[in-house]
Amino acid sequence: MIRSPYPDLDIPEIGLHEFLLGHLDPQDAERPATVAAAGGSGYTYGELVATVSAVAAGLGERGVARGDVAAILAPNIPEYPAVFHGVLAAGATVSPANALYTPRELAHQLRDSGARVLFTAPECLDRARVAVTHDGVRVDEVVVLGAGAGAGGPVRETPWEEFLETVHTGAGARPPVSPDDVAVLPYSSGTTGLSKGVQLTHRNLVANVLQTTPLGQHAPYGRYLAAVPLSHIYGLTVAMNRALYNRGLLVTMPRFEFTAFLQAIAEHRIEQVAAVPPIMLGLARSPLVDSYDLSSLDVLVSAAAPLERSIAEAVADRLHVTVVQGYGLTESSPGITGIPVDRPEIDRGSLGVLAPNITARVVDPETGEDVETGEPGELWARGPNIMRGYLNNAEATAATLDADGFLHTGDIVTVSEDGVFRVVDRLKELIKYKGNQVAPAELEGALLAHEGVADAAVVGVPGPDGGEWPKAFVVPQQGYAPCVAGGLAEEVMAFVAERVAPFKKVREVEFVDRIPRSSAGKILRRELRERESGTGA
């Protein structure tokens, strides 16, 4: 067993909304809570709490209560935390959907979750209208967070202001919330098949807000930028809920665009950003960075996918900031490990140490036995932040959560004598080359260290001997001279070969305009494999 270097924390028996917003002193009520990066609209903490109460009352009037689900389909906007915590205050469960979902993808989530109400933004409304017509979808009202409602949709549509202004009968009554109630039902991206609903309780989420405290620098009243989607558990916990916990200002960006991102940091004097590796790569290499005053930045957290050490160090040196990396899954609310800001000796390319209250094992996936220190194995983790299970999917739950409460992460890691974890790769993404295991993440890290590579991904493809070998998909750095001359493929293969064992070498390179990634920055390897096999759309 591997234990956190931190003592266990006391986790209060309280609902998440009450934990974050239930005790507001008069001074905090006047502080700005959320603001749009470009438009400037937003809420003070007093206004936010009042809006949360109005949302809860409106849902209660419609009979939405404990055991019911309300979904959110919206980009990062100031109203997001008001809707999110308003649903929780009503005693219901909130299911956040990716704002880029197609109607089919949204319909799956609405159907599987059993959502009764859908909150959506005007730019998502057309897709929402199609989704609610799918068989099995129970949504009977769409609340539009802006203009556009009531234009002939298939179910009742209510504008946001009208929803808030409803005459609430018994608005002061609040349903009791148990810490064991399911608070949030995000849907994991999944590498195969349809996404699964992850049941996260109030206790899970309260715990993870507290568990991140010793790992990061979270001064009261800080200024946070929501650059990752709030529909993703990383954005919900590390950006939104951490900001609210610290009575900080959450600046929202509805869509990520690098120039707008830099401008938001400069204009709003952002101090902390929860980022993903593609953002970090831009901060390390883009010439645009030099055109903006980013001196307010203090801490950059990277998570959702492995961050190469050279990139982390380049960002830290360029911006004079502390760069840390965290690790987790939707199923763990999400944080499991992180690099504490006061541990500069820890390798920036590592996952850091276990958060408080977490116990872990590193296990040989073939034998189920713990491996020796420093040897690779699958990470298993147990703690108060681990999900209840997958909704309506006992088989998937049993395959992921064992009888002892350990979450089988599917990630291959190593852990050092001093408790520092390093990711090797996903268990199911390892490439078998002539009997040897090759980790795509290791090769991607080597590729990104080359100055001619703007982005890269590696997958296993059929080799000439009937087995598989590593193929790299590379986005070339604009203007890199060897690329113009046509010699970059040979150059990067030789570059990687100097840095890895012979059996790990990249055997093939294809240049592409972009690497397909999820909204949280994860490489969508399945799309690359489909592209290679010719089965993609």
TrEMBL record:
GO terms for molecular function: ligase activity. The keyword Ligase applies. The keyword Disulfide bond does not apply. SUPFAM superfamilies: Acetyl-CoA synthetase-like. Residues 29-391 form the AMP-dependent synthetase/ligase domain. Belongs to the ATP-dependent AMP-binding enzyme family. This is 4-coumarate--CoA ligase family protein.
